[in-house]
Amino acid sequence: MKKLLLLPALLLVALTTSFAQTTTDSAATRVYRPVRFLVSGAFEFGGDKVAETLFTNGETQTTRAGQGGSIHVGGQFQFPNLEKFLVRATVGFKYVTTQAENAHIRLSRIPLHLTANYMATDKIRLSAGLASHQSVTFKTDGIGQDFDLKGGTGPIFEVAYGVVGLSYTIMNYQDQNNTTYSANAIGVTISGVFPKR
Predict the structure, then answer these.
(1) Could you tell me if 1 and 85 lie in one domain?
(2) 67 within 8 A of 106, measured Cβ to Cβ
(3) How is 72-108 classified by DSSP, letter by letter?
(4) Which segment of the chain is annotated as a signal peptide (predicted)?
């Protein structure tokens, strides 16, 4: 009778040991990579009007300081023993055009982002940091006056689930007459890091 009771106990110990080894081995396969390649993009909306395009049919289109689509590349940095905390740094290109068919009218800028990130769960990421926009240029393709704006620096916040997030940027541009334009923007973001863990 004792031998029959001992057999299930030994099986339970063996299974527990096996599971513990599997868990340890699985954790070991999650190689610590302090730096990973980061690619992201965003569609942003908002800001003050910086230009208005008048079309031959009488319609107009407004170009706003915070408006545009962007793509960014950079790195994600992770500290040893602090898996929930990440630092992200990117440089990108942000661009918006008009529906003009006979001219390439556009507002472009170079955004730089540096953010601290906290992984609340495996999927939910909370982010806060600084955004800086450089080389802010409005081009009319020869049918109007081109002009540059002085870029700004301001806070950026993001809440993301998986690869998709929502962002909010607070920033101002200035023209050559020191007129200030709000470049505040709400955005939908997509980001991913490589290689995967």
Answers:
(1) no
(2) no
(3) EEEEEEEETTEEEEEEEEEEEEEEEE-S-SSS--EEE
(4) 1-20
User: Which H or E element spans position 156?
Assistant: strand 153-161
Q: Which residue has the tokens 């003050």?
A: 48
Among all chains, which residue has been given the structure tokens 């999650």?
30
Q: What residue numbers bound the domain in which 6 lies?
A: 1-30
The domain that holds 137 is classified in CATH as 2.40.160.20
Q: What is the CA radius of gyration of the chain?
A: 25
pTM for this entry: 0.82
Residue with tokens 């020869």: 142
Question: Is 2 in the same domain as 93?
Answer: no
Q: Is residue 26 located within the same domain as residue 66?
A: no
Taking 50 as the threshold, does the pLDDT of residue 21 lie above it? no
Task: Examine the domain organization and report whether 109 and 14 are in the same domain.
Answer: no
Q: Are 136 and 150 in contact, with CB atoms under 8 Å apart?
A: yes
Tell me phi and psi for residue 170, to 5 degrees: -115, 120
Q: What is the DSSP string of 116-153?
A: EEEESSSSEEEEEEEEEEEEEEEE-TTSS--EEEB--E
For the chain, count helices (H), then strands (E).
Answer: 1, 13
Residue 193, classed as helix, strand or coil, is strand
